[in-house]
Every structure is written in C-alpha cells, then in structure tokens.
Write a structure and sequence with these properties.
The complex is a heterodimer of chains A (209) and B (205).
Chain A lengths: L9 E2 L4 E2 L6 H15 L4 E5 L2 H10 L22 E5 L7 H10 L5 E5 L1 H5 L20 E3 L6 H16 L24 H7 L14
Parallel strand pairs in A: 3-4, 4-5, 5-6
Antiparallel strand pairs in A: 1-2
Chain B lengths: L5 H10 L3 E7 L2 E6 L4 H10 L7 E8 L8 E9 L4 E9 L6 E3 L8 H12 L2 E3 L31 H10 L8 H4 L10 H8 L8
Parallel strand pairs in B: 2-5, 6-7
Antiparallel strand pairs in B: 1-2, 3-4, 4-5
The chains are: A alpha/beta (209), B alpha/beta (205).
C-alpha cells in the first residue's frame, strides 16, 4: 500500500482514514475479534441420526472437541455460535431447524455434518430435505456417512479458518439473510429443484414432478 | 402345511360366511374376515373364553403391487395368557372408499396404530376418537405415502415440498389429548391455552 495513491487507505485531501478500508488498526482488530470468535465457538448440536453419535464421540474425551474451544455445548440457540446439523433432516423438522437458526444471534455459522444433512444422502424420498442448505445457509459441509470424528474436526478447523479470514469492518456478512416473503424460502424455487436433483443410483427411480 | 389354529375353526363355527378363508403361513394362522363383521369378530376374539386375545400387537396394512388386488388391513392379536397368536386380515376393494370400523373401543392401544394406518394408507377408521396424521405433519397434503401408486419422491417438486414444510407451524402439532395436558391445561401460558382451545393444527400458506 502507498505505492499507488488510488488504493491508499488515507484520503490525503482531508486527512481522514476511511473506516471501510483496511489499515493497521482495523486489521489488528479483525485479528483479535476473529481469534476470539474462532477459538470459543459454542456449538448448538442438532443431532437427528447416527451422525449425532459421532458428534458425541467428537465431544467426548478421546477426541476432545474442547481443544478447539468448543467444549461448551449450547443447548439454547440464543447462546450458540455454530449450528451443527448432525443427521438427516425430514421435512417435518424443516420449520424447527429454521426457527432454531432464526433464534441464534449474529455472528453465527452452520456446519452440515454428513451426507444426509448435506444432500439428503440415500434418502431421496418424499419425506426428506435434500440438503439443509435449502433451509438455512451452510458454511462447512462435512462429508461421510457418518463422518469420523477427525472429519468433523477438520470441518471445524475449516470453519475456524473461514472465521479468521472475515473482516470485522464488513458488516454485510453479518446481515441476516432474509427469505422471500411470498414463499418463505432463501433460494429461488428453481435453484432448490436444481440442487435437489437425484444423483447416483436414484436417477433410475420414477419421478412424478 | 401345519394344522390350522383352533381359533380359525371356532370362528368359522361362530360367524359362518363372514370368515372368508383361513390359512397358515410360516406357522402363523391367518384369518380373512368380511369387513362388515370385522368388529364383531375382533370383539368376539377378545372376550370369548378360550380365545382371550387381550393384546393387540399391531395394526398395519398391505398394498400389493398387483392390479386389482385388494388392500389388506392386518390385525396381529396375541393372547398373553394362552401364549397364542392370530392374524386377522380384512380385504378392502381399492376402488371404493377404504373404511373400517375402529377397534379403539376394544383395545385402547389401537389409537396410534390406526392413526398410522390412516396416515400411510388412507384407511379411515369409523369411531376413532382422534383420527389424524401421526408420522407426517398435519398439513401434509400429498397423499398416503405407503400406497403403491404414491411416487417415491412425492407428487410435488422439491421447492414446493420445502415451501409447504416451512409453512407448517412446528408448535401446532400437538392436541390437548396428545400432550396429556388436559389436567395441566389451566397452568399453560395464556397464548398456548388460547391456541389449543380452538384446535389449531398448523397452516399452509
């Protein structure tokens, strides 16, 4: 910085440092805030199936999720930072996880643990949400059926890496994503149909719509 | 073929033509009963000395893939004292409305079992006190998932299914009976009391 006057954070005409441009103060503040946030994530466990067993193993002594600052499980969404959806999500639970997500205060992130939470997995049926990203925004997808505790920890470390790259000054990433008031959906209908398309063996099954 | 159950012979003697046929499959006695007399037959089996089928293990239904083959409602009975089992089947013509008499008055355990058969197969049980969906949410309107004509992914596309599921009110899936909060009803918060009192179930936008 400083070599090209156009990108300099200091506006030389009135000598004011723009609050929106990175400088020594804001980057150090970013570092501090992100360091604090990334190392004290309070997870909200949303365990619906076998992934929750692996999640419990991850949190227990042998794998010890508290090494990453996540030992404090938050069973109230109002005190949680990370929603970990561990397991398949039936349509009947869709309004429940949406409400839990809405109750979590910013800043908040979501981890989709396992194949079913991420894509619907083998449950390409009338009762199953085909990926929780059609219901809530997701930051990290952990593959596996179910993922090993190491896999979930890798996902947690990816999330910490993502958090450490965020900018404190950029408030737009903390804005609540609003749903379409007509449909109640985050995504356009075509997009949901597109990402819910069958894959693997299930393409041979009959489709009515 | 193993010998038929003594209950089958006794039923034929007592009900005659209402017992359509009986057989033994894998050692299990099965009796087909005419729909009109089914409730009488089941009541007789429960109360008659020597039968005493006092435990209703399960109610389910079978929809066969073969065209024209009737849908069967299956009652699995057990006599806890005699250690005997009996399977009663009612064949229902799928071309007509699927209506069966409820056995809730005989076995209280039939409550949720009949609700499940209603939810999955669309069989109506006359006389059931609270016949509504139990596994699917109450505003689910795509049909009856375990019927053979029901497509695996449902009738609507995924976006429409997601929209309808999100429009359901997750707190409205309980009735006063289900929560057994009838006794504690007065202690509930006023808004919940108000909601339950007029039977709110959920809504579809």
């Amino acid at each position: 910085m400083g070599l090209n006057p156009d990108t300099s954070p200091v506006n030389t005409e009135d000598g004011v440092v723009s609050s929106m441009s990175p400088n020594w103060m804001t980057t150090k503040l970013d570092f501090l805030a992100n360091w604090a946030r990334a190392n004290s994530l309070w997870p909200m466990p949303f365990g619906t199936a076998c992934c929750a067993i692996e999640f419990m193993a991850t949190a227990a002594g042998r794998f010890d999720l508290s090494r990453f600052g996540m030992e404090r499980m938050s069973f109230s969404p109002r005190q949680a930072d990370v929603l970990i959806c561990a397991g398949r999500l039936p349509f009947k639970l869709a309004p429940v996880i949406r409400r839990i997500w809405d109750q979590m205060p910013q800043p908040k992130w979501a981890i989709s643990m396992g194949a079913c939470a991420s894509t619907g997995g083998i449950f390409d049926t009338y009762a199953m949400v085909q990926g929780i990203d059609t219901i809530i925004p997701v930051d990290v997808y952990v593959p596996g059926c179910p993922p090993r505790p190491e896999g979930l920890m890798y996902g947690v470390m990816l999330l910490q890496k993502k958090i450490k790259g965020e900018s404190f000054m950029d408030s737009s990433i903390r804005d609540e994503q609003l749903t379409d008031p007509r449909t109640g959906l985050f995504l356009p209908a075509q997009r949901i149909d597109e990402i819910s398309e069958p894959f693997g063996n299930s393409v041979h099954q009959t489709r009515s719509a | 073929m193993t010998v038929s159950s003594p209950s089958a012979a006794a039923l034929t003697a007592a009900f005659g033509a209402a017992i359509e046929r009986h057989l033994v499959s894998c050692g299990d006695p099965i009796v087909y009963v005419a729909n009109a007399r089914a409730h009488d037959v089941l009541a007789w089996l429960q109360t008659t000395p020597g039968q005493e089928f006092n435990y209703l293990t399960d109610i389910t239904a079978v929809d066969y893939r073969d065209p024209g083959r009737p849908l069967e409602v299956v009652y699995q009975l057990r006599s806890l004292d005699r250690k005997a089992d009996l399977r009663i089947k009612i064949a229902l013509d799928t071309g007509r409305p699927l209506v069966v008499d409820s056995v809730y008055d005989l076995w209280r355990g039939a409550d949720w079992l009949e609700r499940e058969v209603f939810d999955m197969f669309g069989v109506s049980f006359t006389g059931h006190p609270d016949l509504r969906r139990i596994l699917m949410w109450e505003t689910y309107n795509e049909g009856f998932p375990l019927r053979k004509e029901f497509p695996l992914r449902g009738h609507y596309n995924r976006a429409e299914q997601t929209r309808q599921a999100l429009a359901a009110n997750p707190e409205a899936h309980y009735s006063v009976e289900e929560l057994t909060i009838a006794e504690a009803f007065q202690e509930l918060p006023p808004d919940v009391r108000e909601r339950l009192s007029h039977g709110e179930r959920g809504f579809v936008k």
